[in-house]
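Researcher: I'm preparing a figure for a lab meeting and need a structural model of a single chain. I don't have an experimental structure, so a prediction will have to do for now. The sequence is pasted below. Please return the structure as tokens so I can convert it later.
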Amino acid sequence: MSLTVEQITAIKAFINKRGFNTIEVEMEALDHMASKVEELLEEKPNMNFDLAITKAHSSFGIYGLSTLAESIEDGLLQRFKTQFFKELLSYFNSSKILIPIGLAIIGYFLLSQYPQNDKGMFLHSGFLIYGFLLAVIPYSIFRKQMKRWEKRSSIVKMSTLGIYLTQGVFGQGFGLTTKMLYEQGADAFPYVFIAGFVLTSLTVFINYDLMKWGIATVNEKWAKYMPEVAV
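Model: Understood. Here is the structure written out token by token.
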């Protein structure tokens, strides 16, 4: 049998009352609970619906849904890491890697056009501005979806980490490092500059793909029971 929207809502409320409000946990718990309730009602059609919910919850053992929730949360980070490396490999296994390399070459060309005395400032502020702009663009594209899900979805929240990583670590870190190497006349300067530019660009491109993946994943699972909130 199929549960009604009202029955699904009742199960969801039962789950929320027990503190499971993260979307990923809520969705998986709802899926498991709904399947168990359907099974119980098929066996005994006259069973009280609230009793069916209670029995379904009890079937998960002494800790109820807590064990399931812990397992889901432990798996989220691993799932995100797997997707990250999948996106990363997609660049090195295709011509897409030419995009960040091309941008790095353009950046190095622009640096060569700057007056000698201003190159240090160009390196410091240039990386900072470049990292900031690249971080803002993907967030702006997904702003509406991110505002809807960011506070409730672990996967979507993880996908925004690249923004802060790009701006903080790459944007400022490589800016200061290349400025220092340039002022010292280090032979490693051009290599660090190119590597920094490529990594800064690559991080944002991968983050864009992860944001798109995260939102699509959340919508796909959430829409199974609550299509009206999908975007």
